[in-house]
Amino acid sequence: MLQERGKKLRIVLEPRAPLTGQKLPEGPDYVMMAYNLHGYHNGPGPKANEVLLRRLAASMNSAVQGEPIIALATGGFDWEDGAGTVRAVTEQEAVRLAEEHQVTPRRDPSSGVRYFTYIDADAANRLHTVWYADAETLRQWMDILREEGVERIALWRLGGLTPSSLHFIHERAAAEQ
C-alpha cells in the first residue's frame, strides 16, 4: 500500500530492541538508534562508544535483510554535579561553554567524544561535566560502523553544529554520491 503511493516505511529501533535470533521482514528501512549510552538517565559519559557501535552493528547485520541504517547523535549533555540536573547541549553550545570557562576539552579514546569540566559560579559553584560529539567523533563512529559493514548512517539533531562538523558531513555525503 505504501509503495503504491511512492512511500517507504522506516522503522526506528531502540538500542535495547531484542533482535537476537530475529530476521526482520523485508521491505522497510530499519534504523537503529546508536546513542544515549549516557544521557538523562545516568551519569556523565559519551552518547556512544566503540563497544556499543560494534554490538549494534552486529545485531542489525544479523537481523536485517538488506542494508541496515545506524543513527548517530550529534551534540551531547551537560551534567550538573549535586543538583541532579542534566541538559542536552549542541556542539556549538559545548564549545561556547568550554571557551567561556577557559577549559580545553579532552578526547575520550574509546568513544572519540570530547569532554571537559567547569565550575559554574552562577550556580553555587557547582561542578559541571560536559560530553559532546564533534566532527572527529562522527568520523570515528562512522569508521567503526564501516568496519562492521554498516554503510548507511542517519544523524539525529543537525542544529547547532560547528562549521567543522558541517564540513565533515558535507564531505562525507559528497563522497557517498
Quickly describe the structure.
With 177 residues, the protein is of the alpha/beta class. Helices cover 29% and strands 27% of the residues.
Keywords:
single chain, 177 residues, alpha/beta, five-stranded antiparallel β-sheet, four-stranded parallel β-sheet, 4 helices
Q: What can you see in these coordinates?
A:
The protein has 177 residues and is α/β, with parallel strands linked by helices. The chain is 29% helix and 27% strand. The chain contains 4 helices and 9 strands; from the N terminus they run E-E-H-E-E-E-H-E-E-E-H-E-H. It has helices spanning 50-63, 91-100, 135-147, 163-176, and strands spanning 10-13, 29-33, 69-73, 75-80, 85-89, 106-107, 114-120, 126-133, 152-156. The strands form 2 sheets. Strands 5-4-8-7-6 form a 5-stranded antiparallel beta sheet. A hairpin with a 4-residue loop joins strand 4 and strand 5. It is elongated.
Strand content: 25-35%
Instruction: List segments where confidence is low: pLDDT < 50 over at least 5 consecutive residues.
Output: none
Strand order of the largest sheet: 5-4-8-7-6
In this structure, how is the largest beta sheet organized?
5 strands, antiparallel
Kindly report the average pLDDT value: 90
Q: Count the E strands.
A: 9
Subunit organisation of the chains? single chain
